[in-house]
Design goal:
The complex is a heterodimer of chains A (489) and B (491). Chain A is α/β, with parallel strands linked by helices and 489 residues long. Chain A contains 20 helices and 16 strands. In chain A, a hairpin with a 2-residue loop joins strand 6 and strand 7. Chain B folds into two domains: 173 residues; 250 residues, MetI-like (MetI-like fold). Classes of the chains: A alpha/beta (489), B mainly alpha (491). At the A-B interface, helix 1, helix 4, helix 6, helix 7 and helix 12 of A face helix 2, helix 3, helix 5, helix 6 and strand 1 of B.
């Protein structure tokens, strides 16, 4: 008997093909959404995207609007949402939602408290909170693609720059499709214009804002002689006084990367990427000027051997620099080591205001919540409560230093500036900030700018300031063409 | 008879089940992911299209019935477009009023009420416009000529008009003439810009009524474009062409090979030397010390590499300071390409010598005592015994350890990533290439990682990984050939 007959080969080949098909069929696909759990009142707030529109269409379904107290704010909502809220308050409806964040331990503790407070107010809703989710964006995407709506986040928070990617992929829910127009109108009035606008993408409201973050000038008042410099000339004087590399003291601590140097770029009118005009401005004259200012006016007073986060923060914490440019995320650590800090805007350069990037922390509701109307409403209610309840916002501000974006809280902050010098300082500094772009295209911008900047640092350290200054224009031209090339691909 | 025996020995049904089961598992969990990974290297995979979310399916569903849907609602949609257009035109008029009011303001006659009236008027109209445009029943949001200028106008209005007005007038108790001048300087051009965008949008809305076919084709085109953006495309060898279009990736290969050439001999030398020392009965407490020497193996790589980085941090790191004190020379791992490269080597040796040492010690233990005694009887000296008896006998295990540890050096990733992310950046030049800026110690795997996580260019990233896998394959084949075909195994 021959070892392998042609028939056997054909048989094996057919078997392999069959197995391959079986394998492909076994690959997990997006599951059809589970049947929504019915609630006792009819709930059709707006037409979902995939549902065919009604025969006699109206732009917004006629809804009875009622005024609801959420937290400490009054807001107009649709009657079915009002009914839902009453029921969960009484515990007549029981629903659970998953809330995910990717935060530091001190932040998680405060958020946990807020979650407990919410659950005690609305006993019908169980919020399953996970404070530190690794690789959160990918984890949410994977959960939704796999159709694992039970274990994926129904609501999560991050800075607004994820909006474009998450909305374009359909991972987050447009609130405009579920909230009454009056609700949106009230929300718009409730938050700062800037914060509300951060949650809007392609005209639809996707996220509700609860805090803002960005960088500002933080000074050790003992070291600066009680001065928080408002003009660059004042800062320069302090820097000159402090700079002494032999004693390892420096004029300023400043983590150097494209994000942290952006205020210097904008001060001269420069920019990296303007999503409204789809323009890249990395090699514009103003951007070049900003980078040159960094090399010629700041580097001479800094420790440029290690411009990373740890080293620069340590220099300030160890009292070897009078000021640092950093964000609220480092404040708890700084407060433990440095007494008497003051926070304010990055000083004006010859009348030009440096504008840092700002990220508005938004609460988004994912597609995983949309499959069940109770869960969707519970998520919306949590988002509204979290962003509108003054007591919670105050707690977040008091205990974790989150900078509020709700108008009433900003008024409170202004009235109590002396009690909240740090938060008020950041709030003031970020009033003049530039929102991070929401477009996915920004991902192609960071890399080339970081390479150009790192190269300037290498040249500065190896060959000196003049050579570094001479290289700025060439390096930024190269970065610009790399970005444009990446856009094309 | 023979066939009966075969059936008894190998029951066909059970055999088929087992084979089928294992093949399904093998193909689904092993071959398919590998095949897919290889396929990604030949696509334009990015964060948007590598794992498209529910939106793609929704868009396809909308696309399927869009023409008939728009046809059936022609009158309604055109009517809504005109309604939106009227609201936009009213908004433009209100914005003109706003400009006039701001121009007329003096520090004495500022009226927040006037501003607020205009603001709420504008807001209410634009909210209505948004609601019409984004409605599923009109699908006007699928016409880029309407939505794009409207979107920019609304954002500009919020960021550059209302925010500036709030900052200057609302949150400022004592408004000066200077404040007003600044406000005019920034806000008046912004208002004009918004008006320009709104005019564009209004014109596009008018076109829906006057040229409905044009609107329909724009909607279909936009849907096609959005579906295209979320779809993965086969791009042939484009990613490989991109990899080799500038010197960064080739330089990364060169640097990786250099790292292999320096770190492997170091690792092997240190590992073998320590094994020989700690096998010698002359070393007191060698068992304890041997145990200690295995510590680098037990410590998580993340922790040990970070510790090394901290030790060599310029100005603060303990070893960095000691070295500077002793030699007067400063170690700059964030500035000097070769300082960083040297540290990579030190860390790699530290991480890998326990492996080489363990393999060598096992080989040493297997050398028959008689060989050593015979050599001693013949009058050989220690070095002679080592060179002529011991080393030849342990060469093969060392060769295997070397092969494996070379693979580890070729895949260097955690060390450059954690120490300085493959930096410092500099101008990379290689013969035949135009110099470009890049990271000077970006090893191949790190290069691939950065393209995926930094640039979100998964196709390019996978192509880089395919190159490193190919290199490993060539290397493995070479060793197989040398060991088994050329008879090295008989050494």
């Amino acid at each position: 008997m021959p070892a392998t007959s042609p028939r056997t080969i054909i048989g094996v080949a057919l078997l392999l093909i069959l197995i391959l098909i079986a394998g492909i069929l076994l690959i997990p696909r997006e599951r059809a959404p589970t049947t929504p759990t019915p609630i006792t009142t009819p709930t059709t707030p707006t037409t979902p995207l995939t549902t065919p529109p009604p025969e006699t269409p109206t732009t917004t379904p006629p809804q009875l609007v009622r005024e609801l107290t959420i937290g400490t704010s009054r807001i107009r909502v649709s009657s079915d949402f009002y009914e839902f809220v009453s029921k969960v308050k009484r515990g007549d409806i029981r629903v659970s939602i998953n809330f995910w964040t990717a935060m530091m331990p001190f932040e998680v503790k405060v958020i946990e408290k807020a979650v407990r407070k919410f659950m005690s107010e609305y006993p019908g809703i169980e919020v399953r909170y996970t404070g530190t989710v690794a690789n959160m964006k990918e984890a949410i995407k994977a959960g939704i693609i796999a159709g694992d709506f039970e274990n994926t986040a129904h609501i999560f928070t991050w800075a607004h720059d994820w909006t474009g990617e998450m909305a374009d992929g359909g991972f987050i829910v447009s609130l405009s499709r579920y909230l009454a127009r009056e609700t949106i109108e009230d929300l718009r009035r409730g938050y700062t214009v800037f914060a509300f606008s951060s949650g809007v993408y392609k005209l639809e409201l996707y996220g509700l804002p609860w805090a803002v973050e960005g960088i500002a000038l933080v000074c050790n008042l003992d070291a600066t002689g009680g001065i928080l410099p408002a003009k660059f000339s004042q800062l320069e004087e302090i820097m000159k006084r402090w700079y002494n590399p032999e004693r390892r003291t420096y004029g300023i601590s400043w983590q150097i990367d494209p994000y942290h140097v952006y205020p210097l770029i904008t001060a001269f009118g420069g920019f990296y990427y303007d999503e409204d005009r789809d323009a890249v401005g990395v090699n514009s004259a103003a951007t070049i000027e900003g980078f040159k200012f960094l090399l010629s006016k700041l580097f001479p007073y800094m420790f440029t051997g290690d411009l990373g986060h740890e080293a620069q923060l340590a220099i300030f914490e160890e009292g070897r620099a009078p000021c640092i440019v950093t964000g609220p995320w480092n404040i708890p650590r700084i407060k433990e080591r440095v007494a008497g800090i003051a926070v304010g805007p990055i000083p004006e350069i010859d009348g030009m205001q440096p504008k840092p990037f700002s990220g508005v922390k938004l609460l988004w509701i994912t597609k995983a919540a949309e499959a069940d109307v109770n869960r969707l409403y519970a998520s919306i209610l949590f988002a509204l409560w979290f962003t509108l309840d003054d007591d919670t916002i105050k707690m977040l501000m008091d205990e974790a230093g989150f900078i509020p974006v709700k108008v009433a809280m900003i008024d409170f902050l202004r009235a109590n500036r002396d009690k909240y010098p740090v938060v008020a300082g950041f709030s003031l500094a970020l009033a003049n900030s530039v929102p991070m772009p929401k477009s996915v295209k920004m991902a192609k911008v960071w890399g080339p700018v970081a390479e150009a900047l790192s190269s300037m640092i290498t040249i500065y350290n190896e060959k000196g300031r003049e050579e570094a200054l001479a290289s700025v224009s060439r390096l930024l031209d190269e970065a610009q063409s790399k970005i444009l090339e990446a856009f094309k691909r | 008879m023979a066939s009966t025996r075969e059936r008894l020995l190998y029951p066909l049904r059970i055999a088929t089940l087992l084979i089928l089961g294992s093949l399904v598992i093998y193909i689904s969990f092993s071959l398919l992911p590998i095949a897919y990974s290889v396929y990604v290297a030949f696509t334009d995979a990015s964060a948007k299209n590598i794992a498209p979310g529910p939106r793609l399916q929704e868009l396809r569903e909308v696309k399927a019935g869009i023409v008939s849907d728009l046809e059936s609602r022609r009158t309604y949609i055109a009517g809504e477009a005109i309604k939106a257009k009227t609201l936009i035109d009213e908004t433009i008029a209100l914005l003109s009023e706003l400009s006039i009011a701001i121009m007329r303001f003096t520090p004495e006659n500022i009226s927040i009420a006037v501003i607020n009236d205009i603001k709420w008027g504008v807001d209410a109209r634009l909210l209505e416009v948004k609601s019409i445009v984004t409605s599923e029943s009109t699908k006007l949001y699928l016409d880029p000529n309407i939505i794009k200028p409207l979107d920019v106008a609304l954002r500009t209005l919020d960021y550059n008009v209302w925010r500036h007005i709030d900052l200057t007038l609302l949150y400022n108790i004592h408004v000066t003439e200077e404040d007003l001048a600044k406000l005019r300087e920034s806000v008046i051009p912004a208002i004009e810009e918004v008006k320009g965008m709104l005019v564009e949008s209004s014109h596009a809305l008018e076109l829906v009524n006057s040229d409905y076919e044009g609107f329909m084709s724009r909607v279909v085109e936009e849907l096609d474009m959005q579906i295209e953006e979320l779809t993965l495309h086969f791009v042939g060898l484009d990613n490989f062409r991109t990899l080799f279009s500038n010197p960064r990736f080739p330089y990364s290969i060169v640097k990786t090979l250099m790292f292999v050439a320096t770190s492997v001999p170091l690792k092997v030398m240190v590992g073998v030397t320590l094994a020989i020392i700690y096998t010698s009965p002359l070393v007191y407490g060698r068992r304890f010390m041997r145990g200690l020497l295995l510590v680098p193996w037990a410590v998580p790589v993340l922790l040990s590499v970070t510790t090394w980085r901290i030790l060599f941090t310029p100005e603060r790191g303990f070893l960095s300071l000691v070295f500077e004190e002793l030699s007067g020379y400063r170690v700059d791992i964030y500035v000097n390409e070769w300082h960083a490269f040297l540290l990579y080597n030190i860390v790699e040796v530290w991480l890998a010598y326990p492996f080489v040492m363990t393999v060598t010690m096992a080989a040493l233990a297997s050398i028959p005592k008689e060989y050593l005694e015979a050599a001693l009887v013949d009058g050989a000296r220690t070095l002679q015994i080592l060179r002529s008896v011991v080393l030849p006998l342990i060469l093969r295990p060392i060769a295997f350890a070397t092969i494996l540890t070379t693979g580890a050096s070729l895949q260097a990733f955690m060390i450059p990533l954690l120490i300085n992310n493959g930096g410092p950046a500099k101008t990379i030049s290689l013969p035949g290439y135009t110099p470009v800026t890049g990271y000077s110690n970006e090893m191949i795997v790190l290069y691939g990682y950065n393209r995926a996580w930094l640039d979100q260019d998964y196709g390019l990233s996978t192509a880089a990984f395919i190159v490193v896998v190919s290199m490993l394959l060539v290397y493995a084949i070479l060793w197989y050939y040398l060991l088994y075909r050329r008879g090295w195994s008989s050494v």
